[in-house]
Design a protein that fits this description.
Elements (H helix, E strand, L loop, with lengths): L2 E3 L6 E5 L3 H7 L4 H22 L3 E8 L7 H24 L2 E6 L7 H13 L6 E9 L1 H17 L10 H5 L12 E4 L18 E4 L9 H12 L64 H10 L4 E3 L1
Parallel strand pairs: 2-3, 2-6, 3-5, 4-5, 6-7
Antiparallel strand pairs: 1-8
């Protein structure tokens, strides 16, 4: 059984949905059958994410490079996409989900745009969760587009060269309109990113699942989130203090405690340490959780016991 902390969820989760073709091949079925089962997995995971309370979910549905696949397979994928949008329209609207789409949408067939565009428009005021479909999408292509737009602005004199900053670049990337991804999951056993959300991945946590996408379910999503919650995200800053060895605190470098992020002073040497909150194990095998950072400990102590959700 995996537990996740209800108050420590990743805000933006991206998923590279891999393994449809191999799922079908292992069963002696055509690849289109794997894609149909993959569409069912999308419905399943969107519902779980909405129930769990994720703020944003981005699904890598079709890459720019996927256009090079056999025409028959591409046609089947576009038909499945259209069917998904038609079948899920009512549920998306009724559950307060805002549908977004990123990528080179102009390449999509008219029959897809005819259902995609109205659903995006009709759901734009919804605020419970943002579901983003990456369609004809590529991370490198998105970066190149943003760079070209900034170059045009410099050439036209609208901005100075010094105004070309990381923030200016990210402001032109539709994939980051919901914020950088906190957690990116890839199914299917591969260990690569495949041109997905490249700019936003700078400090994302990565989780690689061996299960093929059609079989990815609630337990697998919870396992990925539990893995995320066991990690300490430092964003280039100093991590948590080293654990005690033999009951004695590790010596401080330079003799002074490191300041906490945000300017709060560290506990005085010899004083009481920040209270710790006992946490349930992340797995039913009692996996050891990494030590909490001082900020995490203080927040947890102030807010009381952490609510947990289990499957």
């Amino acid at each position: 059984m995996d537990y996740v902390e209800a108050r420590n969820l990743p805000g933006h989760v991206g998923i590279i949905m891999d393994g449809n073709g191999r799922w079908a091949q292992a069963r002696g079925l055509p690849r289109a059958s794997g894609h149909r089962e993959g569409a069912a997995a999308v419905r399943r995971i969107v519902r779980i994410a909405r129930r769990l309370g994720l703020r944003a979910l981005t699904l890598y549905a079709f890459s720019e490079q996927n256009w090079a696949r056999p025409e028959e397979e591409v046609d089947a994928l576009m038909e499945l996409l259209r069917d998904f949008l038609l079948n899920e329209r009512e549920e998306i609207l009724d559950n307060g989900i805002r549908l977004n789409a990123i990528g080179n949408l102009g390449r999509l067939p008219g029959v897809v745009r005819a259902v995609l565009d109205p659903l995006r428009r009709d759901s734009e005021q919804n605020g419970e969760m943002v579901l983003t479909l990456a369609l004809s999408y590529g991370g490198r292509e998105e970066i190149a587009y943003a760079a070209r737009e900034l170059a045009k602005s410099v050439a036209a004199g609208r901005i100075r060269l010094d105004d070309v900053t990381p923030d200016a670049l990210r402001a032109l990337m539709p994939s980051l309109s919901v914020g950088d991804p906190d957690l990116v999951i890839r199914t299917g056993g591969e260990r690569r990113i495949s041109n997905f959300l490249l700019y936003g991945l700078a400090y994302a946590e990565l989780h690689f699942a061996d299960v093929l996408w059609p079989d990815f379910g609630e337990r697998d999503l919870f396992a990925a989130i539990a893995s995320f919650q066991r990690r300490e995200r430092r964003f280039g800053l100093v991590g948590a203090p080293a654990p005690l060895v033999g009951g004695a605190p590790a010596p401080l470098v330079g003799g002074a405690p490191a300041p906490l992020v945000g300017g709060a002073p560290a506990p005085p040497v010899g004083g009481a340490s920040a209270p710790q909150v006992a946490c349930a194990p992340a797995t039913h095998e009692s996996a050891t959780r990494e030590p909490a950072s001082p900020i995490e400990s203080a927040l947890a102590a102030a807010s009381g016991a952490i609510t947990r959700i289990a499957i």
